Amino acid sequence: MAKLSAVESEQSVPQFVSRQIPLYYQLQTILLEKITSGAWGPGHRLPSEAELGESYGVSRITVRQALAALEAEGRLRREPGRGTFVIGLPSGGPGLEGSLEDFTSFLKSTTNRVTSVGRVQAGVEEAGRLRLPVGSPLTRCCCLRSHRDEACGVMVHELPYELGRHFSKANWREPMAQVLHNKLGIRMVNTRHSVRASLSGVNVARLLDTRIGAPLLTVERIISDERDMPLVRSVTHCRSDIFFLVSDRHDEESCSQTRPAKNHRNGTNGKSR
User: Which string of b and e fits 210-237 if b means at least 16 CB within 10 Å?
Assistant: First the structure.
């Protein structure tokens, strides 16, 4: 019968970060991490509900809710009389190995579907990035990036409304710098990228077919004109079970690279397929 190790049992209870967050949701996140990290591979038999409840200090009802949620996500298979098993995800998902530029190139190679375009007011974060007063009108476009019909990223473009209002729906599927130059005569010369971890909100979770609060890799790109004025902010949210960032140091020089997390769809790392 599958059981948690002594180390896992001792470390499990402190992983609950807040009693204000439903315990079943926190347990679901902890168990999902064991699956996505490869600690529990395809076919692994989970401990029983009673053993999980004892190990994590929660009721069997809480355990049952967490397992049901993971089963609904297609992560687990429950067999009456046998137990609960990890499901191996189908192969064919996107993967990437290389530099941040390779990551950007990969996204350009995916299909791009516009899901929404609208006028919004700049919040504190947007205003700071684009050097605008808070409340300034922006045009915001949300696009879904897919690889072989599987959603792999959500990209959100934001730019001053006076520029964005000239964009057609087709323009949003083209490179922003190219559209600004060809359509409005604005030459974009500088691009700055930043990478951070984030959590999936309601809209991103729906588009990526993941759960609210799931960890994401978020890449932000700020494009500036010849006066070094930022005019376009593009933010791409990717599932962190597909991509992650690693930093290699060679000859005392640091080099950041974007590589795939262990590909749970086929059990290997690899370049984009």
Answer: bbebbbbbbbbbbbbbeeeebbbbbbbb
In the predicted model, is pLDDT for residue 238 greater than 50? yes
Handedness of CA 235, 236, 241, 246 (dihedral sign): negative
List the domain boundaries for the chain: 6-86, 100-260
- For 149, 193, 207, 250, 268, the CA distances from 141, given in Å and listed in that order, are 21, 19, 14, 40, 34
Condensed to tens digits (0 to 9), the pLDDT of residues 150-204 reads 888 999 999 999 999 999 999 998 989 999 999 999 999 999 999 888 888 878 8
Q: Can you name the CATH fold of 100-260?
A: Chorismate lyase (3.40.1410)
Do 211 and 249 meet the contact criterion of CB atoms below 8 Å apart? no
For 217, the token pair is 């890799």
Cα separation, 58 vs 84, in Å, equals: 18
pTM greater than the 0.70 cutoff? no
Residue 59's pLDDT is: 93
Six token digits for residue 232: 């376009």
CATH number of 6-86: 1.10.10.10
